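tool=predict chain=A
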Amino acid sequence: MSTSAQPAAASVQDLVASLARAGRAAGRVLARTPSADKERALKLAAAALRRAAPDVLAANARDISAAETNGLSGAMIDRLRLDEKRVEGIAAAIEDVAVLADPVGAVIDEQARPNGMVLQRLRIPIGLIGIIYESRPNVTADAAALCVRSGNAVLLRGGSEAVHSNRAIHKAMVEGLVEGGLPADAVQLLPTQDRAAVGAMLQAAGLIDMIVPRGGKSLVARVQAEARVPVLAHLDGINHTYVHHDADPAMAQAIVRNAKLRRTGICGAMETLLIDATYPDPHGLVEPLLAEACELRGDARARAIDPRIGAASDEDWDTEYLDAILSVAVVDGLEDALAHIARHSSGHTDAIVAADQAVADRFLAEVDSAIVMHNASSQFADGGEFGLGAEIGIATGRLHARGPVALEGLTTYKWLVRGSGQVRP
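tool=predict ok
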């Protein structure tokens, strides 16, 4: 279905329902597919993606051209852009997921009751996962690979910015999965960019088992407001790095620069730098950022470090920039840093650079975020870097899964009870 002739709302609802039913049927096949067969199919999908690299890059060039015409920011275009190295990275990530330990069928725990019954909790797939995402075409492959490996079917709805890239990646992956003997409907991509399709997915209770939104604040807010399907939410990455007064200056400079500028458009990028008031070289932290044209916005004490630092507004402390912009505050020790983070963190990733282990341990214990780091860049907030192969997203809530969501986060469990004739008195 072309994006130029969008279907009416009723037909979009019918379309989503039809795709969901097909996905559920494919999911039942996946749930009983042996681990070795899923591994082989994913490796074939990676090989198919490599073969299709010229088509994927040509499709991506169309998306990049449209993004530039539409005035997308440089950071957003970076998230969207593919080259040969990134396509290879996507294929390699599929292979990494393929060889991860299969969670399906794993026994979580087991106990024998006094009456002789034996109880087990067994990991099983969730079913059909709906994933609604923006901009980054690698999500198409990452989500598909993780869902297939964990025995789930998936219905993907990518953003308009990456529509051609997503379709090319999806086409290649399905060819490989089918070659490996899996049903084509195990991984489906909505063939329309009609926004009504998102609403239809959110209302598809009983057909879609879980929705994962992966995108900006407006997308996540819409999903949470409208969904009649359970949601695994990923909120803003308003990530802090606190440089304690005893931090090693060379280490602190390297971590701060990397956390902000390695890739500004990813959710693990640092958005607020907290500098201890007694840290000996605050200018050494901000100078490399300013030298690379990063805009700094600070409180009064931060602005005193360098006249090039502009004034921060109240909104800045609660903003995920996803760009070469950084908020900077000077804080009076660990207590003040913890209070600032408690007020403004989105619960994604927060970090401390400190030599004092007791200070670091308190920070790690008291910061209530999905990921808390000591002496490391927040850019490591990534499923691949955590040894998970890839991630479906980083969950910032408290239920079901938290942090990078990979295979285990895409399973639930059921109880198995084995008796020998017991009846309840």
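The chain has two domains: 9-232+392-417, 239-380. The mean pLDDT is 94.
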